[in-house]
């Protein structure tokens, strides 16, 4: 099969032929239809998040079941499926408590070592040398995924575009769940890339108003309004605009979806007294954002970190929301690249040139 390999930090992604992986017990081999282009992969490419190389990136995929490992039930070959970037082991301390977004083995094995839960990778070069896996290593024609993280895709949803359900929209649902968002609450979304646009859509679906989109790029604000934002401001306009919409108080919930100190602080500054700020953007390792302690204490502000949703609880909900049209899965996907163009896709993402979400399509 073809796979886009990152040889080392700062290296371009290069497509090479590698053996098709084989699923082990409790795993599924997915023939990948498409893989989303996410900023978290870009952090690895740039060395801002530590990860072993050489590796295969890509962590939000859609495709069809190619083979089932021993013991897998409830799926069949040829079935259309999606997978989230968090791959719960199902047995660790957090998974058995229903907190799959904190899965110990996912972080200890996959995110730190690039392997699955028997301690080995499923990807190798022709000479037998290992290729490490970022989640399932979705920038390839086939990927092995734990069965705990493979979900049938409802009829009527487009297969390629559905890839973004695995991270952009999955992360957005986790953020909205973490916030405890209720109908009628006011929301600000700082940074409207793929995840931010997902939060805009879900906030609208949950009955929030106003839903305020904040971004530097006019075309991103236009996209946010098309997907449900009631108002849109640049960062310079945000303070005055939000106060005018909320009788001077600020919003009930502010989401930050970029992972930069300035956007973190901006989101916090937009809260009303007693409001909640949910940061979801990943920053380079070691980056901090200062918080005014006295305001945090006196005004009862809450900062609620959110990495993603809980796969087995939340992915079925997400799929249902997409199926009934509460989420515009296809509308959020704005660009498609071939696997050979994967490096170009991430370079364009790094330059801020992608509006919405891009996907790498394997069959093109």
Automatic annotation (TrEMBL):
Keywords: Metal-binding, Oxidoreductase, Zinc. Residues 8-360 form the Enoyl reductase (ER) domain. The keyword DNA repair does not apply. Pfam families: ADH_N, ADH_zinc_N. InterPro entries: ADH-like_C, ADH-like_N, ADH_Zn_CS, ER, GroES-like_sf, NAD(P)-bd_dom_sf. Gene3D superfamilies: Medium-chain alcohol dehydrogenases, catalytic domain (3.90.180.10), NAD(P)-binding Rossmann-like Domain (3.40.50.720). The keyword Metal-binding applies. Its cofactor is Zn(2+). PANTHER family: GROES-LIKE ZINC-BINDING ALCOHOL DEHYDROGENASE FAMILY PROTEIN, NAD-DEPENDENT ALCOHOL DEHYDROGENASE. Belongs to the zinc-containing alcohol dehydrogenase family. This is Zinc-binding dehydrogenase.
């Amino acid at each position: 099969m073809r796979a886009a390999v990152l040889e080392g930090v700062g290296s371009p992604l290069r497509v090479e032929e590698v053996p098709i992986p084989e699923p082990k017990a409790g795993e599924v081999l997915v023939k990948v239809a498409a893989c989303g282009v996410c900023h978290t992969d870009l952090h690895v490419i740039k060395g801002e998040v530590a990860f072993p190389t050489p590796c295969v990136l890509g962590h939000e995929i859609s495709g069809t079941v190619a083979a089932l490992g021993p013991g897998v039930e409830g799926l069949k070959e040829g079935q259309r499926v999606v997978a989230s970037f968090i791959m719960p082991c199902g047995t660790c301390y957090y998974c058995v408590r229903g907190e799959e977004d904190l899965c110990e083995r996912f972080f200890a094995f996959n995110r730190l070592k690039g392997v699955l839960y028997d301690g080995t990778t499923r990807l190798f070069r022709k000479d037998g040398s290992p290729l490490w896996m970022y989640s399932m290593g979705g920038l390839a024609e086939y990927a092995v995924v734990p069965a705990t993280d493979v979900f049938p895709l409802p009829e009527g949803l487009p297969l390629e575009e559905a890839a973004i359900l695995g991270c952009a929209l999955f992360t957005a649902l986790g953020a909205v769940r973490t916030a405890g968002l209720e109908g009628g609450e006011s929301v600000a979304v700082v940074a409207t890339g793929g995840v931010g646009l997902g939060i805009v859509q879900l906030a609208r679906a949950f009955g929030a108003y106003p839903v305020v989109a904040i971004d530097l790029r006019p075309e991103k604000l236009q996209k946010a309004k098309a997907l449900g934002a009631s108002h849109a401001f640049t960062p310079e306009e945000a303070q005055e605009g939000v106060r005018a919409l909320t009788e001077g108080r600020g919003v009930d919930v502010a989401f930050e979806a970029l992972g930069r100190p300035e956007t973190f602080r901006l989101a916090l500054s937009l809260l009303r007294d007693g409001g909640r700020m949910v940061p979801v953007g990943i920053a380079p390792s070691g980056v901090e954002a200062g918080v005014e302690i006295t305001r945090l204490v006196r005004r009862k502000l809450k900062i609620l970190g959110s990495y993603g949703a809980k796969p087995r609880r939340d992915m079925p909900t997400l799929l249902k929301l997409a199926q009934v049209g509460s989420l515009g899965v296809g509308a959020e996907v704005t660009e498609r690249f071939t696997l050979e163009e994967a490096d170009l896709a991430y370079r364009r993402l790094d330059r801020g040139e992608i509006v919405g979400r891009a996907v790498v399509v394997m069959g093109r």
